[in-house]
Fold this sequence. Notes:
alpha/beta; Rossmann fold; Heat Shock Protein 90; five-stranded mixed sheet
Amino acid sequence: MTNTDPTHVLLVEDNPSDARLIAEYFKEQTWPEIEESEPEITHVERLSAAVDACDDTVDIVLLDLGLPDSSGLETLDTMVEGASAVPVVVLTGLDDERVGIDAVEHGAQDYLVKDDITPNLLQRTLRYAIERERQQRQLSQRNEELALLNQIVRHDIKNDVAIILGWGEGLEDHVDPTGEEYLEHIMSAGNHITDIAETVGDFLDVLEGNSDPDLRPIDIERVLTNEIEKARSAHDSVTVRLADEIPSGLRVAATELVSSLFRNLLNNAVTHNDKETPEITVSVDVHDETVQFHVADNGPGVPDSQKQEVFGRGEMGLESPGTGIGLYLVDTLAEMYDGSVTLSDNDPEGSVFTVTLSQW
């Protein structure tokens, strides 16, 4: 549709009186920002006919939920799928806010109660629906482009860092004692860059995944043991110990991304530790229906006023109360698994992050 073309409305309504009334409403007020005084209307009475008629010339669909060949939200689901990128506004005779909310959750741009429709309300609703759909398509396209760029950049960064770390390992036997310290810093920074790239990738997987994930039994002994070993290998100067043996066969309701949850908790405990020898203790408490995982450190701790802020989208920096994307990912994953993560003080110093997950 251009600014000089009439808007093409597909009206799906089996009640002739309602269809005529809506057509009259379009005539009572000039359609904004176009030369024609009223839109072009294609009227059909059945859902099957609407799906067939919804081609690339249609700008918006006005959909009655109760039709001869379909009723309720199934009507909307079928229309949204058949309409592709065409916005849908639901018409309902039920003065029920829940109906409208459900319709929007199922993909409608908006809804109108027939008894409340006025010419101005009808035209304003359709105009806004068309604009919202256009903006959503643009945003979706940008997100796809950014996701692809992110994937390419992370791939290149990880490859280059792997090469740097390989060269660094080759130098270990060829540097004098003075250079060992500098080489250690280079290797530590390289591993940190790799961790960041992996965390960003995991975070994007969460954002792009289903908001209601398919939880399944995860062998937490395998996951936690593996992440502790990774932390020990990546940070030679850090002591990471397991307070008690993890019960064999213990499973929690989660997804494979739960490994990222523990990896980021361990990395956080190392990164924000100001001791010459950082110490991290991992312990597990098994309850009747839940499991609690405690990651305790001997770092500087977190003031009470900032304990909630550390889980936000904090910027990494000296002046920031947040700790970056890592803890935000931890909090997001815990919530996605119907669990929780809390922060408390360690005794005598440091912090304790406690993650609670459901047993399978």
